[in-house]
């Protein structure tokens, strides 16, 4: 009884922190879903103890998976560090400050971005959102991941020249929960440059989640949008027969919604192996332009690398047709945080200020046809940013 009251109190307190979230609806509905049987098609143990970190200055706490789901539904952000309680940071030499280039490859970048279109993003996102949920512990989440791997393969086959195709590898980074992270690498022309100046990373997360994980989660904006945005950048680069000087990798993480699980596994493995990473940029939510607001590219300024962030602003000025705006997102906000944690430089661009972002996320309403505010042309601006970032940092071997 006491503990029941304590947990009720706790929910109320968390609810206050979470502001406008429908706490009462969630408590009533969640009782029904989270106290009953786990439905078919999900492999999750709600009683499993997980180690969760809510901020930099608090010690991590043990809680059940059920409590973790509840905390997320109430708007809290965290790393689930159960699988990576301790981690080895990347060697200090790799994290050493390197100067960012001045934007100076307009002649190479502009023809590529002129050929980017919304067509592929529309068909890819229609398919990606057709899975009932892309939850990382669901069968449909595994199926959506397999579809993504297949689609990347088709795009490679269709757009890469034979020489370029030889430089491309598509790998599944396996996770114990079923849905794997997907890693696409274009090998750079110079191994020496990659070793010295690092691999260039762009990331998005492929998984989606309803606040109550057993309910449908189309995840159109969060983060289907980022997932197909970087895919279009990839297609455009292939169509232009792009060969980087340094290695370039596109990452589609699994289990961002479970507490950045996929990206932590990948980032800590790269750090352990001493892989040199030039920088990592995350795109999580790229579609929404709130009615009555100016169309902008949100640049997150907290828990990111300041120099890389400044470099992104210059890329937006050079390659996007809309301005950037600073915003904040909080601790453990998306997968870039997993890279900063192990000592690499990372940054995060998002659809708008956090305040003006899509409020349908983590619900059945995160659909691409929910409102004209869901805008593929807005996503295209982020594809341009991606191409600019890659060519400017990884170079172009001609
Ligand atoms: C690494 O980057 C620096 C700065 O852009 C450049 O001068 C140098 O040649 C690069 N290293 C290699 C091996 O290409
Ligand atoms: C852009 O598209 C045009 C017309 O489809 C094509 O001729 C051209 O080669 C493409 N350029 C690049 C850089 O992909
Ligand atoms: Zn999310």
UniProtKB/TrEMBL annotation:
Cofactor(s) named in the record: Zn(2+)
GO molecular function, one term: metalloexopeptidase activity
Membrane-spanning segments: none
Keyword field: Aminopeptidase, Hydrolase, Metal-binding, Protease, Signal, Zinc
Boundaries of every Peptidase M28 domain copy: 182-372
A biological-process GO annotation: proteolysis
Pfam families: Peptidase_M28 (PF04389)
Signal peptide: 1-20
Listed EC numbers: 3.4.-.-
Family per record: Belongs to the peptidase M28 family. M28E subfamily.
Protein name: Peptide hydrolase
Species per Swiss-Prot/TrEMBL record: Calocera cornea HHB12733
């Amino acid at each position: 009884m006491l503990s029941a009251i304590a947990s009720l109190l706790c929910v109320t307190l968390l609810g206050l922190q979470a502001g406008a979230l429908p706490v009462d609806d969630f408590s009533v509905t969640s009782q029904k879903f989270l106290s009953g049987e786990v439905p078919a098609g999900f492999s999750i143990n709600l009683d499993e103890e997980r180690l969760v970190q809510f901020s930099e200055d608090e010690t991590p706490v043990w809680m059940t998976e059920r409590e973790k789901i509840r905390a997320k539904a109430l708007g809290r952000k965290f790393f689930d560090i159960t699988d990576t309680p301790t981690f080895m940071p990347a060697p200090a030499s790799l994290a050493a400050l390197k100067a960012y280039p001045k934007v100076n490859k307009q002649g190479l970048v502009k023809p590529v971005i002129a050929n980017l279109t919304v067509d592929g993003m529309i068909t890819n996102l229609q398919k990606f959102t057709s899975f009932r949920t892309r939850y990382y512990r669901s069968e449909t989440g595994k199926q959506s991941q397999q579809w993504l791997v297949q689609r990347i393969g088709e795009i490679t086959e269709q757009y890469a020249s034979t020489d370029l195709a030889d430089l491309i590898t598509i790998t599944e980074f396996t996770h114990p929960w079923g849905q794997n992270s997907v890693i696409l690498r274009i090998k750079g022309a110079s191994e020496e440059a990659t070793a010295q100046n690092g691999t260039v990373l762009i990331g998005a997360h492929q998984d989606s989640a309803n606040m109550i994980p057993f309910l449908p989660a189309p995840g159109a904006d969060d983060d289907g949008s980022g997932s197909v945005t970087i895919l279009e950048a990839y297609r455009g680069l292939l169509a232009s027969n792009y060969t980087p000087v340094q290695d370039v990798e596109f990452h589609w993480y699994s289990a961002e919604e479970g507490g950045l699980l996929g990206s932590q596994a990948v980032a800590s493995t790269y750090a352990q192996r001493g892989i040199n990473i030039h920088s990592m940029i995350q795109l999580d939510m790229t579609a929404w332009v709130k009615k009555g607001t100016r169309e902008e590219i949100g640049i997150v300024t907290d828990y990111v690398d300041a120099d890389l962030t400044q470099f992104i602003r210059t890329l937006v000025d050079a390659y996007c047709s809309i301005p950037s705006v600073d915003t904040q997102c909080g601790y453990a906000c998306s997968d870039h945080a997993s890279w900063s944690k192990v000592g690499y430089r990372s940054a995060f661009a998002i659809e708008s200020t956090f305040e003006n972002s899509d409020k349908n996320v983590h619900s059945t309403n995160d659909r691409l046809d929910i409102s004209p505010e869901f805008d593929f042309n807005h996503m295209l601006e982020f594809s341009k940013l991606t191409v600019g970032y890659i060519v400017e940092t990884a170079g172009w071997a001609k």
